[in-house]
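Name: Putative nucleotide sugar epimerase
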Amino acid sequence: MKYLVTGASGFIGSRVIEMLIHRKHSVVGIDNNNDYYDTCLKFARLERIKNDNFEFVKIDFSNKTPLDALFEEHEFDRVIHLGAQAGVRYSIENPMAYADSNLIGHLNILEACRNHKIEHLVYASSSSVYGLNDKTPFETSDSVDHPVSLYAATKKSNELMSHSYSHLYGIPTTGLRFFTVYGPWGRPDMAPFIFTKKILDGEAIDINNSGNMWRDFTYIDDIVEGVVRIADVIPMRNDEWKVETGTPASSSAPYAVYNIGHGSPINLMEFISEIENALGIEAKKNYRGMQAGDVYKTYADTSDLFKATGYTPKVGVKEGVAAFVKWYKEFYDK
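Structure predicted for Putative nucleotide sugar epimerase:
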């Protein structure tokens, strides 16, 4: 099949493209390669996935005109929309960037899918939509009406926008709520990367809420397997579904939302300990309070995704952290 993948030079996007190519699909990848973090890392990711079945086009999908031209040129079967302005804390400092990429950009993708009869749109949502929820594990039947960051609010908005297009135009859409993805080629703004860099540089690491935090850390290979599998599970209309009795993760329209995570949260201090073990260095630690936009615990109920795809995460935190640290030291010659 022919896929469009947005966020092609990103952490998850580049790895999804790699798997699609391995499975003999044709892929066009787009990204604006902005400087939110080190562009050298983005270009290096693109370099490693060069292939005759892959074409990269530099496009900002918040700009409708070149995006429409791309859809006109290529007859895409499916779209995997992973591009977005990421980061919880950055959304507090630079809110307008999220309006452009995550709201206008998502609408542009939906419009292009509508106009070109795309078979299936899979897009990135986030575990951050669960916001103030205390009940764990997080289930897709839970309320997600109380986000604690603008980033989370834009991801909830993406789900709502997608449902409206599924309802109005019959476009099959699937949202994936990602839970703390980590691994080789990861993002420099995320904790594993920040901790590893600071420990190697002899700097103290900031530990929020004095380490009393839990995250459903999910290794990149497990995430990519789930994304590619769900692309084959196209939502269908269900005329029996009713708002009063049905789950909000499905609909009478061809619409679905799934959690995609490991399903076993790890205490932050345990995760840091694994990094220390992999590096052979004890971290200098600066304990501090809870930060704006943060949540105490994330924990994915992935039973629906398993039923749909057979998705079962395989990589534990010890193995995953070791692989990340090995990559980091090699890539940055440490």
